């Protein structure tokens, strides 16, 4: 099936904007992007008139809890944290996602088409993250990649959770010790596994240590929940001790170590940016931080930590960061190409480029203008959200009643 989105102001993100551009979609993927003269539109293509709109890739949320911390469900819909084991590396966010969570429809209304869903930060090691699209009947249909990374937490959260239980870890040194102990066990496990393989002997697998070996081998990045500068320094220290790929998540005080972070090429997934200072770690939260990090040369993504900030406000955080000094081009990349690259899904999403999934959003104007809205949203080439001007509300296609199933 061919779909041609024509006549809009096309912003590919990884290339220059195109006046009166065309995005050609074939079988759910982007086939071509260019001017009307550059793109050969098949005669059988469905034409989507985008005149007067901005055409962009769907936004990518790099750190959220959609489907595992469900909207309006209270404790019954909260599967974010398995806080019965400080080392939850074997846990998978994939197994807890409810696609019926209202947040997925909200995401589409805000132009967000892909999200990396992470376990919570109650444990020193929380579990495996997963990247999904924001539309589908089951998480398996929505899947982009799994696992994407391993979530870990430093600072107040694990200290508070296990301190209340009067068990390890109840201090920052205890949290770091749990992480270090787990990674040392993974190193020993890997050596024993390799020895058993060389001797052609049976080996009892451990699901927790298998995941941590993948971190040590560089297959999975380590997404480190960390706010304060001292905790960021601990995160860097641990990563250099064990040699894994560190991604700083939250980074509230990352601006205080911007040069150190940039020198080590550590990406920062910054946010949430428009919350109250609800705990000590957030004392120095500032909308100026993204601009400071970007000017220092840090690769930056902006996230909502939904439901802390509602998922459809992702773009507004970028807008407010621009107001406080982040350049607009970097802000746009921070919610598209950058999070996709940082999370290793840039071969699927994050830009309008031939070969990528056809996740395309038509905006009424510049999405960094707070008055602009997402008018039409395509996921894998299928229109799944439309803003109805006459009714003044958005309409999301129900994935359980797709036309090809009736």
Any chance you could write out the topology, listing elements then pairs?
Blueprint: E1 2-10, E2 18-26, E3 29-35, E4 46-49, E5 54-57, E6 59-64, H1 102-109, E7 112-117, E8 125-128, E9 130-133, H2 139-142, E10 143-145, E11 150-153, H3 156-164, H4 172-198, H5 207-216, E12 222-226, H6 229-242, E13 246-250, H7 258-263, E14 268-270, H8 289-296, E15 300-302, H9 314-323, H10 328-333, H11 337-342, E16 360-363, E17 374-379, E18 382-388, E19 393-396
Structural commentary:
The chain folds into 2 domains: 108 residues, Urease, subunit C, domain 1, CATH 2.30.40; 284 residues, Metal-dependent hydrolases (TIM Barrel, Alpha-Beta Barrel). The protein has 11 helices and 19 strands. The radius of gyration is 22 Å and the shape is globular. Strand 6, helix 1 and strand 7 form a beta-alpha-beta unit. 50% of the residues are buried. The two termini are 19 Å apart. It is 27% helix and 24% strand. Helix 4 packs parallel to helix 6. The strands form 3 sheets. Strands 1, 2, 3, 4, 5, 16, 17, 18 and 19 form a 9-stranded mixed sheet that branches. A 6-stranded mixed sheet has the order 8-11-12-13-14-15. With 406 residues, the chain is an alpha/beta fold.
> Can you tell me the number of structural domains?
2
| CATH homologous superfamily descriptor of the largest domain | Metal-dependent hydrolases
Helicity level: 25-40%
How far is it from the N-terminal to the C-terminal residue, by CA? 19 Å
CATH topology of the largest domain: TIM Barrel
Instruction: Please outline the major beta sheet.
Output: 9 strands, mixed
Strand content: 15-25%
Instruction: Give the class-level CATH name of the largest domain.
Output: Alpha Beta
Number of helical elements: 11
What's the architecture of the largest domain in CATH terms? Alpha-Beta Barrel
Rg, alpha carbons:
22 Å
* Poorly predicted regions: none
| Topology order in helix (H) and strand (E) letters | EEEEEEHEEEHEEHHHEHEHEHEHHHEEEE
The total of beta strands comes to: 19
**Overall mean pLDDT:** 96
Identify the quaternary structure here.
Answer: single chain
């Amino acid at each position: 099936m061919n779909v041609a989105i024509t006549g809009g102001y096309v912003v590919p993100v990884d290339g220059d904007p195109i006046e009166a551009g065309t995005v050609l979609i074939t079988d759910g993927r982007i086939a071509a992007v260019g001017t009307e003269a550059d793109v050969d539109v098949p005669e059988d293509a469905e034409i989507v008139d985008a005149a007067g709109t901005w055409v962009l890739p769907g936004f990518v949320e790099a750190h959220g809890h959609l489907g595992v911390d469900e909207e309006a469900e209270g404790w019954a819909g909260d599967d974010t944290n398995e806080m019965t084991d400080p080392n939850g590396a074997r846990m998978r966010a994939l197994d807890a996602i409810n696609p019926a969570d209202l947040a997925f429809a909200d995401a589409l209304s805000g132009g967000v088409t892909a999200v990396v869903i992470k376990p919570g930060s109650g444990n020193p090691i929380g579990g495996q993250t997963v990247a999904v699209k924001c539309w589908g009947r089951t998480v398996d249909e929505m899947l982009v990649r799994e696992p994407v990374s391993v979530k870990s937490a430093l600072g107040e959260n694990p200290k508070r959770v296990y301190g209340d239980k009067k068990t390890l870890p109840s201090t920052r040194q205890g949290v770091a010790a749990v992480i270090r102990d787990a990674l040392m066990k993974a190193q020993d496990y890997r050596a024993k596994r390799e020895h058993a393989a060389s001797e052609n002997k049976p080996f009892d697998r451990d699901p927790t240590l298998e995941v941590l070996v993948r971190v040590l081998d560089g297959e999975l990045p380590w997404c480190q929940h960390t706010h304060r500068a001292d905790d960021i320094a601990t995160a860097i220290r641990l990563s250099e001790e064990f040699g894994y790929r560190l991604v700083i998540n939250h980074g509230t005080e990352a601006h205080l170590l911007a040069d150190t972070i940039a020198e080590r090429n550590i990406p920062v997934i910054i946010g949430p940016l428009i919350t109250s200072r609800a705990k000590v770690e957030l004392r120095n939260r500032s909308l100026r931080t993204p601009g400071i990090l970007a000017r220092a040369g840090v690769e930056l993504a902006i996230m909502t930590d939904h439901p802390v900030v509602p998922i459809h406000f992702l773009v507004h955080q970028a807008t407010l960061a621009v107001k406080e000094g982040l350049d607009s081009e970097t802000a746009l990349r921070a919610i598209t190409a950058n999070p996709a690259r940082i999370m290793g899904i840039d071969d699927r999403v994050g830009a309008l480029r031939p070969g990528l999934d056809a996740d395309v959003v038509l905006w009424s104007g510049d999405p960094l203008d707070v008055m602009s809205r997402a008018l039409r949203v395509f996921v894998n080439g299928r229109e799944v959200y439309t803003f109805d001007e006459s009714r003044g509300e958005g309409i999301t296609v129900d994935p359980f009643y797709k036309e090809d199933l009736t």
